């Protein structure tokens, strides 16, 4: 009996000792794997750092590349493409205008009734149409026939309030602003040659042809309605126009969304650039010097690039291209986070002894889900836990692991936001609105007589950046980091005059307003 009790006690003690050892081992093991993951985190954070001096170098490099691209087509990694638009809206536009936004495997048609300075945008309606897969691989004629057919169906639904509000002015032609986010070499405000199909299209023909002519022929084939493409634009130009419609101090349009790009009004354009063709960018004298940059292509050794960015780039469909966009676009931020976490799981056993299968799947973590984790302020990071479960099927995580995930999201977003800020300040530097440059507005102001009216007007002038895109609009921390870095980079005087405004839907509303500015039929406005 005593022996039995003894052996039971020994057995119990052994079990307890083993359990305690397991707990200690687990505790040690947990700490040690979190410690290893923390080392990787610190390494990553260090590699992503964007101190002020780095941002300053980047802004300067952007401004220099802008000038190089203006001096000579192809002279810079920034494309610096003239837009050929002749007017920017001022709020007086009137009439019914359409927009067609072809930016991906969906397109959007929109109608907008403009009522002039008092009524502004009276009413608008839109429809999103998915392009059938077969058409992404077919011919340009089939694609444009489909687009024209859906556009006509949409026009047929035009209600009496749109027709009543429109001053037909003796004609029945509807005018349209066309936004295309494929690379286009624009030849006038409503013509442009397709350079390349991107965004999932694998169409055999169409490259080298005028996109407006292809759409126009398809619309003519449909019969029944007469439609004229009044303007062909990039989405950044629509964003700037949409902002300018409300505020004529808007000088810059920026998209910080799935992808990224910017356009601006070039105020320091030397006269010969405006009048001569050949070496310089050929901007006809009757157009506005609005340039869109294709800044997503920018690359500089000053950009804080990590092994993760290199890996992502090497495995992408366009290695070596769009370096800045791959660090800043919402298309990539979630994927960068996933790659960092996958490496931590692989090398530091974050999330357990084996790498969760779904964590290995490229692009499974959307930036939207990442932003939810980043916004999590609960003490136990409950939302991080939920997203890890929902997206990667990781059933259980420790708080220390969730803190690491949160910190990775913060690092990736802070870098993207601060780089975007440096690029915006690069534009301000180029146009002399950053307050540091000797050619800046303030020094030009100083040169004017103190009591001159011109000086008084300029002193009041603000620089407004019209901004669109999901990162700016919906990713709160991104927006805060970006704004803070812009103000860090600017002089106090320039910062006081800078306004960053949300200008929603440049590719839709902005395009229809620009169609009004370039209308052949709308009543003239001043
Ligand atoms: C396109 C640009 C566009 C930007 C924002 C980029 O991928 O090349 O033309 O402005 O996306 O949508």
Notes on the structure:
This protein has 526 residues and is an alpha/beta fold. It has a domain at 82-247 and 505-517: ATPase, nucleotide binding domain (Nucleotidyltransferase, domain 5), CATH 3.30.420. It is 49% helix and 16% strand. The protein has 21 helices and 13 strands. The protein has helices at 2-47, 52-71, 116-119, 133-136, 140-156, 160-165, 211-222, 235-246, 271-275, 307-314, 325-328, 330-348, 367-374, 382-392, 399-430, 441-447, 453-460, 470-474, 476-489, 492-497, 506-517, and strands spanning 81-82, 94-102, 106-115, 121-130, 173-180, 184-188, 191-194, 226-233, 250-256, 260-265, 290-292, 463-468, 498-502. The chain has a six-stranded mixed beta sheet, sandwiched between helices. Strands 4-3-2-5-8 form a five-stranded mixed beta sheet. Strands 6-7 form a two-stranded antiparallel sheet. The longest helix is centred in the first third of the chain and has 46 residues, at 2-47. The radius of gyration is 28 Å and the shape is globular. The relative contact order is 0.16. The model is unreliable at 1-7, 24-28 and 272-280 (pLDDT under 50). The chain binds beta-D-glucopyranose. Beta-D-glucopyranose binds at residues 181, 234-236, 255, 259-261, 294, 296.
How many individual β-strands?
13
CATH domain fold name of the domain at 82-247 and 505-517: Nucleotidyltransferase, domain 5
CATH class of the domain at 82-247 and 505-517: Alpha Beta
Give the helix proportion (percent range). 40-55%
Q: How would you state the average pLDDT, rounded?
A: 88
Strand order of the largest sheet: 1-11-10-9-12-13
Overall shape: globular
Q: What's the main sheet like?
A: 6 strands, mixed
Low-confidence stretches: 1-7, 24-28, 272-280
| CATH architecture descriptor of the domain at 82-247 and 505-517 | 2-Layer Sandwich
Ligands and ions found: beta-D-glucopyranose
Strand content: 15-25%
């Amino acid at each position: 009996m005593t022996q039995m009790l003894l052996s039971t006690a020994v057995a119990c003690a052994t079990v307890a000792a083993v359990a305690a050892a397991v707990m200690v081992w687990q505790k040690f093991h947990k700490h040690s794997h979190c410690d290893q993951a923390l080392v990787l985190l610190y390494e990553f954070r260090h590699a992503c750092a964007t101190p002020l001096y780095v941002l300053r170098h980047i802004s300067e490099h952007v401004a220099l590349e802008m000038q190089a691209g203006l001096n000579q087509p192809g002279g810079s990694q920034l494309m610096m493409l003239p837009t050929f638009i002749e007017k920017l809206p001022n709020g007086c536009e009137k009439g019914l205008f359409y927009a067609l936004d072809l930016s991906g495997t969906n397109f959007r048609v929109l109608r907008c009734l403009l009522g002039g300075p008092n009524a502004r945008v009276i009413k608008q309606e839109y429809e999103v149409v998915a392009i059938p897969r077969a058409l992404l691989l077919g011919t340009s004629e089939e694609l444009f026939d489909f687009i024209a057919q859906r556009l006509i169906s949409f026009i047929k639904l035009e209600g009496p309030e749109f027709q009543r509000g429109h001053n037909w002015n003796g004609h029945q032609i509807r005018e349209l602003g066309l936004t295309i986010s494929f690379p286009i070499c624009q030849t006038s405000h409503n013509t442009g040659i397709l350079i390349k199909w991107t965004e999932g299209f694998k169409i055999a023909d169409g490259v080298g042809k005028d996109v407006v002519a292809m759409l126009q022929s398809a619309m003519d084939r449909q019969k029944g309605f007469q439609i004229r493409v009044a303007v062909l634009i990039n989405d950044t130009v629509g964003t700037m126009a949409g902002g300018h419609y409300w505020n004529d101090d808007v000088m810059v349009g920026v998209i910080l969304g799935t992808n990224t790009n910017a356009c601006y009004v070039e105020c320091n354009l030397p006269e010969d650039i405006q009048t001569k063709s050949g070496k310089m960018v050929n901007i006809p004298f009757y157009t506005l010097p609005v340039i869109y940059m294709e800044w997503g292509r920018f690359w500089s050794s000053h950009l804080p690039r990590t092994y993760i960015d290199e890996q992502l780039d090497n495995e992408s469909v366009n290695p070596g291209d769009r370096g800045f966009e791959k660090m800043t676009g919402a298309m990539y931020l979630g994927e960068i986070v996933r790659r960092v976490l996958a490496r931590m799981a692989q090398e530091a056993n974050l999330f357990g002894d084996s790498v969760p299968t779904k964590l290995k799947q490229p692009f499974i973590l959307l930036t939207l889900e990442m932003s939810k984790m980043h916004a999590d302020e609960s003490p136990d990071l409950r939302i991080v836990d939920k997203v890890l479960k929902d997206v990667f099927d990781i059933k259980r995580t420790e708080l220390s692991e969730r803190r690491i995930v949160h910190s990775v999201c913060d690092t990736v977003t802070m870098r993207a936001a601060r780089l975007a800020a440096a690029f915006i300040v690069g534009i301000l530097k180029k146009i002399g609105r950053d307050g540091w440059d000797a050619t800046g507005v303030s020094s030009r102001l100083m040169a004017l007589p103190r009591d001159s009216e011109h000086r008084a007007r300029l002193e009041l002038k603000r620089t407004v950046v019209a901004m669109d895109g999901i990162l700016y609009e919906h990713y709160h921390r991104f927006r805060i980091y970006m704004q803070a870095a812009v103000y860090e980079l600017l002089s106090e005087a320039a910062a006081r005059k800078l306004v960053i405004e949300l200008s929603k839907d440049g590719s839709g509303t902005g395009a229809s307003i620009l169609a009004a500015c370039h209308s052949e039929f709308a009543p003239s406005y001043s």
